Amino acid sequence: MTHETTLAVLRERLGADSFTTSEFRDNYRVIVPPARLYGVLECLKQHGGFDMLVDVTAVDYLYYPDARDRFGLIYALLNTATGERLYVKTHLNEPDLAIPSAFSLWKGADWMEREVFDMYGIVFERHPDLRRILMPEEFAAFPLRKDYPLRGRGERHNFPVLTRAEG
Amino acid sequence: MAVRLPENVVATRLDALANWVRKNSLWPMPFATACCGIELMAVGASRHDIARFGAEVMRFSPRQCDVMVVAGRVVMKMMPVLQRIWLQMPEPKWCISMGACASSGGVFDTYAVVQGVDRFMPVDVYIPGCPPRPEQILQAIIDLQEGIRRTGTLTGKEFEQRTKPGAPLPLALSVDPAAAVVAPGDFATSTRVR
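Predict the joint structure of the above. Result:
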């Protein structure tokens, strides 16, 4: 699968210097700075024919060798007419973990962005309902961050103890 | 004074009679959250036939149940639900912690999984195994029946003086949060340091 047509659209509308690309096997990524992410996604949706948002996920690069940025945020796109798949990736650093939501482009971004927020604490601006989706509402940490201990910080032991007398 | 009893009449204590009735009509509350629930279904089916012990009436309303069977791992979000269901069950009631996950967290030693339901609610019988064989569940029912026969009272408040949870000590000692951070030292050869 060649991505030349799609890249030509991006270059024409946003400029050749607005993104970089990388490739691993058949996994083709478009890497953009956070400020341009929404513009690139919008262009791919409106003019590139990417009508399906397959996945939104993130990576924590803390302790990762030779990593310059803390978080990677990845949007996996699919053009259902041609079968073309593209991964749009951006990098985020603390304390500025806010990024525009893609909900206005694909309604499916709703729960997937909530999951990324729940697990990594990346804040999606203009998201209609940015709440935790997997962890309990009162949970205070972001458990998929690499500086969060595997066994937690005692949240799993924080329940009232019921005895026979109470039951 | 001798009393002549007609045939087929047995004299007993009311407590013993109540216990005999209770132990032979345990109605389980199947709190099945994982693969242990499948074994629990197998126990209810004809091959193992839990009905031989009078415990085949699985009820999905806690108000009609005697014995809570916690079958499977319980995560943080599920623990308040489990406790609420336990409180909704009428006295007298008993609890079976079925399988490694319900009893100790099993292999799921992570931030989200409760390390044994006995930390937060009373448990009468533990079943080891991952998942346990149906025969083990039957044995647990038999053991529970024996316990009910010996310790039960008419009011069903025999455990009232037990105000402290009788849970075993946690297997995994608590780890200092800084020491528990899983940081891969070398991505090429290992994914975990500890």
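Chain B has one domain: 14-151.
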